[in-house]
């Protein structure tokens, strides 16, 4: 047993609620326990990411940067962490380095200390600039391995990728196992080897979907992992993570436990009390899902596809769809399935099944994936598929504007709609660049959710009600 215990990152405010209630938790339901969370002694709190940013603007009528301001004010002791999709930032398409730099500068300024940076294809070129910009801000750049299983994804592949991530300047490494595929003994061996080959700290992030997470986290501790991600008990398990209190109980004897279990119980009770408000967003899975081990399909992806089939009145085709996903994945060189590759492969699988013919219709995004526009494909692309793809499909990438062009465009939008000119503030401008349509609706809305009264922030905060 290693003498050193791993640090713990609490993920309830981002991934816990993302995995269990589709990221719908409002800031007001987090506020009552923020000070308590700050007192637990977590190494960090994961609080922000693509889905939280998107959902704030799209569904909750909240400015994601306002939420971050609340966190910065309330969390005085604990580091704040976010998940960043490399060049896609918190969105779904690639942004220019000038936008990436502006985003990271502002996120660091507003309180993010640890940036967990991933690329769906594990193409190091797609995370390089983000790591550099985070290092320039003197914050923790955490390079990420998106874990998957396939004939090309072996231990040698992961060690080389991890070394490359260290070599480009990442300050820590995360193993991100979004579908819960990492088996306990495989994880143990992998972490042992990574600890031997790397100098930077290793974080493990796995999901409970397949029922392996508790054992995998425990074995990772035995292998000497530096940090484990957990979610408070009332937002744990199913599609989410090992429960914080359970993991602490696994690694500490009662008389040496540095964590205040009563405080954790208080926090768990709060989240238990808010969870029923969001019952409509809970997934349908009960227990664990073994399909995931067989098909490498992340839980979130499967539930979205299931809903799409129900909407089309084609729910009887679900099994065909589940069978089609690993076939497509093999055709495109075994890409890991995580945003955006999970959406792209899922949409193509849906088309193949509904058309009754494979690749009769091909999505533009799928063509781009095959043509390497999203990054380097890990394995080989099926030659028959390559023939079907017209390599000369024109690239309609005309919307890439410079920062000042975006600012002018946003300013014109505000003027023409007779609202305050929000374009001057970088964080508002970033909303406009990253989620254009949602931001337009947000800034035009007169009943935005703000929290200035609750937390007593003044200048420059919560001023959108005009
Ligand atoms: Co996750």
CATH class value of the domain at 7-281: Alpha Beta
Structural class: alpha/beta
In sequence order, what are the helices and strands, one letter per element? EHHEHHEHEHEHEHEHEHHHHHHHHHHHH
The proportion of residues forming helix, as a percent range, comes to: 40-55%
Q: From the 3D coordinates, which CATH architecture of the domain at 7-281 would you assign?
A: Alpha-Beta Barrel
Main beta-sheet annotation:
8 strands, parallel, barrel
Extract low-pLDDT stretches.
452-466
CATH H-level homologous superfamily name of the domain at 7-281: Aldolase class I
Question: What is the assembly state of the chains in this entry?
Answer: single chain
Task: Give the cofactors and ligands.
Answer: cobalt (II) ion
Describe, in short, the structure shown:
This protein is 46% helix and 9% strand. It is of the alpha/beta class.
Describe this structure in words.
- By secondary structure, the protein is α/β, with parallel strands linked by helices.
- Among the domains are: 7-281, Alpha-Beta Barrel (TIM Barrel), CATH 3.20.20.70; 403-446, no CATH class.
- Helix content is 46%, strand content 9%.
- It has helices at 12-21, 34-38, 50-58, 64-74, 97-109, 125-136, 155-167, 184-197, 213-222, 244-251, 261-274, 291-295, 299-311, 318-331, 341-355, 364-370, 383-388, 403-416, 426-434, 436-444, 452-455, and strands spanning 7-10, 44-48, 79-84, 112-117, 140-146, 172-177, 202-206, 227-230.
- It has an eight-stranded parallel beta barrel, surrounded by eight helices.
- Helix 14 (318-331) packs across helix 15 (341-355).
- The radius of gyration is 22 Å and the shape is globular.
- It starts with 6 loop residues before the first strand and ends in an 11-residue tail after the last helix.
- Mean pLDDT is 91; it is low at 452-466.
- The structure holds cobalt (II) ion.
- The site of cobalt (II) ion (CO) has 4 residues, from loops.
């Amino acid at each position: 047993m290693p003498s050193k215990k791993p640090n713990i990152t609490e993920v309830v405010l981002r991934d816990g609620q993302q995995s269990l209630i589709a990221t719908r938790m409002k800031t007001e339901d987090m506020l009552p326990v923020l000070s308590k969370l700050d007192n637990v002694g977590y190494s960090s709190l994961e609080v922000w990411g693509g889905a939280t940013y998107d959902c704030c603007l799209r569904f909750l009528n909240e400015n994601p940067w306002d939420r971050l301001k609340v966190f910065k004010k309330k969390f005085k002791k604990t580091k704040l962490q976010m998940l960043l999709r490399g060049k896609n930032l918190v969105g779904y398409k690639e942004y220019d380095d000038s936008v990436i730099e502006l985003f990271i500068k502002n996120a660091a300024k507003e309180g993010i200390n640890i940036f967990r940076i991933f690329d769906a294809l594990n193409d190091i070129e797609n995370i390089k600039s983000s790591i550099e910009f985070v290092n320039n801000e003197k914050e923790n750049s955490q390079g990420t391995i998106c874990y998957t299983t396939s004939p090309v994804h072996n231990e040698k592949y992961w060690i080389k990728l991890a070394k490359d991530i260290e070599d480009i300047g990442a300050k820590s490494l995360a193993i991100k196992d979004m579908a819960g595929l990492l088996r306990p003994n495989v994880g143990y061996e992998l972490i042992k080897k990574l600890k031997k080959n790397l100098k930077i700290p290793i974080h493990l992030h796995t999901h409970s979907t397949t029922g392996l997470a508790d054992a995998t986290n425990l074995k990772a501790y035995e292998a000497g992992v530096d940090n484990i991600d957990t979610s408070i008990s009332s937002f744990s398990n199913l599609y989410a993570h090992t429960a914080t209190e359970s993991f602490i109980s696994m690694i500490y004897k009662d008389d040496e436990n540095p964590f205040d279990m009563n405080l954790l119980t208080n926090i768990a009770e709060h989240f238990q009390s808010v969870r029923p408000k969001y019952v409509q967003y809970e997934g349908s899975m009960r227990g664990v899902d073994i399909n995931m081990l067989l098909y490498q399909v992340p839980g979130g992806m499967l539930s979205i596809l299931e809903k799409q089939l129900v909407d089309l009145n084609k729910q009887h085709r679900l099994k065909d769809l589940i069978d089609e996903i690993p076939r497509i994945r093999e055709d495109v060189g075994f890409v890991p399935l995580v945003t955006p590759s999970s959406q792209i492969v899922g949409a193509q699988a849906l088309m193949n099944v509904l058309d009754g013919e494979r690749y009769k219709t091909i999505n533009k995004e799928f063509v781009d994936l095959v043509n390497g526009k999203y990054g380097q494909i890990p394995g080989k692309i099926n030659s028959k598929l390559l023939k079907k793809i017209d390599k000369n499909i024109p690239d309609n990438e005309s919307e890439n504007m410079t920062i000042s062009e975006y600012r002018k465009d946003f300013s014109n939008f505000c003027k023409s709609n007779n609202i305050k000119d929000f374009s001057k503030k970088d964080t508002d401008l970033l909303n406009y660049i990253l989620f254009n349509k949602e931001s337009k609706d947000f800034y035009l809305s007169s009943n935005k959710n703000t929290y200035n009264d609750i937390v007593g922030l003044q200048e420059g905060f919560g001023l959108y009600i005009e």
